[in-house]
Amino acid sequence: MPSPPCVWSSELSPTRRHILTLTWAALLLGPMEAFGASNVVWVALAERGGIHEDAAAALRDALRSGSGGQNLDVKIALWRDLQLGQGPAPAMVVTMGSGAYRGMVERVSREPALASLPLVATLLPRSSFDAIAPAPNARTTAVLLDQPVARYAELLRRAMPDYRRVGVVFGPTTLPLRQPLADALASRGFQLVDAIVPAGASADAVFPALSSVLQSCDVLLALPDALVVNAASLQNMLIAAYRQRIPMVSYSAAHVRAGATLALHTTPAQSAAQTVTVLRRMLAGRQLPPVQLADTFEVVANEQVARSLGLALPDTSALEAAMRRQEVGQ
Length: 330
Known about the structure:
Structural class: alpha/beta
Distance between the termini: 46 Å
Number of domains: 2
Number of helices: 12
Mean pLDDT: 87
Helix content: 40-55%
Low-confidence stretches: 1-37
CATH superfamily of the largest domain: Response regulator
Strand content: 15-25%
CATH topology of the largest domain: Rossmann fold
CATH architecture of the largest domain: 3-Layer(aba) Sandwich
Shape: globular
Strand order of the largest sheet: 7-6-8-9-10-11
Radius of gyration: 24 Å
Number of strands: 11
């Protein structure tokens, strides 16, 4: 076999030599070390303290624990305090929560130099992500807190197999999920009973829609839609469902503490772990990935409410394990 041409041949231009040098550096040093001056990751917060900063710290520690991670410089700060020109430019920006994402998007629209940086939004629902339009030409993706609709259907199959009529009030954010959810429920022997609150409707339209669903359903499934489920409507939903002895399944652990029977949600720590996987692939040279739904989850139950409704729920740890095995086997 003939020998390959020498890459240091005088026939190579200086530009090509530079490109080859960087390529060999990436191969020899590993993906993270090859970033050199761009081994900086910005993690943007809306405010200090709380679960967002805790998740940011967990993300930083996990990134640094990987191969070559000790050379990463993970800067955690308020979104407005992360400034270009103060040290090496970052390889990417991660936002924690809706407020930080909104703030960075506003900055990108004002600071064109930021538009070239990949922006990964985390710890926010799709409704918040979709409501914040990215700047033109921005390189943006997200790791969302939302669950796949099939996961809700599987939870109902395993936790409440006899509650066949599943009630949902759809709003403008969740309406695109209507058919996928109906299909996922039907494939498991359930029937969707629904009402729609259209975009532009007032908050007064929610309760009539809820009342019509509660008249015909066995279990109420609340999906993350700010028009339907919000601080003003949540307590009314819980009270109305409980008075008709209908369990409510939600997407938030806080709703379970408030009186929902069951919730399927992703913790900040779980979302941070998923984000670390995305960032490592990007640091290794992969393309900006598409928006992702939550790939891990937790099930929480309000045993007191379940007992008062005469509902015997399986152990939540067993539920989680069975659902994960089912997803892996698909």
